[in-house]
Amino acid sequence: MEHEKKLWRKPPKKAKKVVENMNILEQIRAGALPVPETPCLVINEEIARKNILRVQNAVNAAGCALRPHIKTHKMPYFTRLQLEAGAAGITCAKVSEAEVMAEAGAEDIFIAYPMVGEFRIKRAFALQQKIRRLILAADSLDCAAALSHAAQAQGLTAELRLEIDTGAKRTGVLREQAVELAKSIAALPNLRLTGIYTFKSLLLAGEPTQDNEAAGREEAQLMLETAQALRAAGIPIDDISVGSTPTGLQAASTGLVTEVRPGTYIFGDWMLVQERCARPEDLAARMYATVVSTPAPHYAVLDGGTKTFPMDIPLDTPPYFYPGYAIPMGKDGNPDENLQLRRMNEEHGILTAKNGVTGLRVGQVLELLPIHICTAVNLQNHVFVGNEDGLRAMDVAARGMLV
To answer: 395 forms bridges with which residues in the sheet?
Structure first.
């Protein structure tokens, strides 16, 4: 279970006026509420709740189901908020993540990853017997046959979705091979093929795009056509599940799919801002680090390095040309375009100044925006969640759940 020990309460009365007019992140920036430790990640719960409701309401209005991916927050507390807001269920990538969320009360879970390996299948079927609904995934006959064999041995029937490649060239059967594979899977005992799913994100005609609307429409259309082909072949597909924050709302609004699986929307990050999927005011997460050394005017060293800031986004690469591994923020709450975090060791983040002068001092606490929030959260043992009562530490319960 997550750790929710309260470490900080409201500042004393002399700061009350500031507190009343500012959210948690603004209070920290103004010095009215210090962060307990650095490096750390702080979540503004008010903004996260707004994001949950905004997306839930939009998906509801489209007549679609929302099954958020917990890969972003990895915390049962936020899973509960999403379910209470009306999510149909949740999505996980690995069975170990699903086990964590089931312990916290999630009863309808889709593991959107090929269930390959006896060790995974054993744990998945053990989980299936503890919750109301578990949906598994396959994109090959080998994967499905192993599931069928194990389900037979245990006297179970497994619900299954077939993953379709709609351009990402990751996992997923090629669309032209989907009907034949689905026929073979549907013939296997102890499996119930109920749907198809995909992950495409910002691709259009197989190439990167900045047109979210067109990418979402294409994703929905490709999946509907695949479902229609399967149904024409006698395979009764019910669920058409698509995903990702960049295209989820656009795909849902077409009326062609039954479910969307966005994840990043709950906290947001700089990537979503660049992809025009979030406004700066929608970003609920900030990272904080302390300046521990200023050896020269043009660079300063932070107490967080590669074990704090993710490096999974390439720099200086089109179309977004990210200038560093996190975006340093100024006192005005806007990006500081002079400072760049482009070099790191395990415990050192080296900030350089474009104009040759960082202006930083030892002991100064800096605010930074994560580029990719999912991997940023996964690097933390715990985060600090802020609301009207102050800050509390919360364990990232599904951190490092790789199996």
So the answer is: 382
How long, in residues, is the chain? 403
Say what the pLDDT of residue 19 is: 58
Surface-to-core class of residue 154, CB atoms within 10 Å of its CB (0-12 exposed, 13-18 middle, 19+ buried): middle
Q: Both 27 and 62 in a single domain?
A: no
Beta carbons within 8 Å of 403's beta carbon, 6+ residues apart: 94, 95, 96, 119, 120, 123
Q: What is the distance between the alpha carbons of residues 155 and 369, in angstroms, rounded to a whole number?
A: 50
Name, in order, each residue with C-beta under 8 angstroms of 87's C-beta and a sequence gap of 6 or more. 56, 66, 67, 68
Shared-domain flag, residues 165 and 140: yes
Q: Which of 135, 372, 133 is nearest to 245 (CA)?
A: 372
Burial class (CB in 10 A: 0-12, 13-18, 19+), 292: middle
**Which of the 8 DSSP states describes residue 371?**
S
Query: What is the pLDDT, as a whole number, of residue 382?
Result: 98
How far apart CA 348 and CA 90 sit, in angstroms, is: 36
pLDDT for the residue numbered 243 = 86
Instruction: Give per-10-residue mean pLDDT for the chain (403 aa).
Output: 37 42 90 96 98 98 98 98 98 98 97 98 98 98 98 98 97 98 98 98 94 97 98 97 96 98 98 95 98 98 98 95 97 95 98 98 98 98 96 97 97
Tokens of 274: 């660049």
pTM of the prediction? 0.94
**Phi/psi at 183 (nearest 5 deg)?**
-60, -45
397 vs 73: CA distance, rounded Å: 9
Does the residue 195 lie in any domain?
Answer: yes
Q: Which of 292, 290, 265, 260 has the alpha carbon at shortest distance from 279?
A: 265
Same-domain status, 122 and 142? yes
Q: Are residues 114 and 17 in the same domain?
A: no
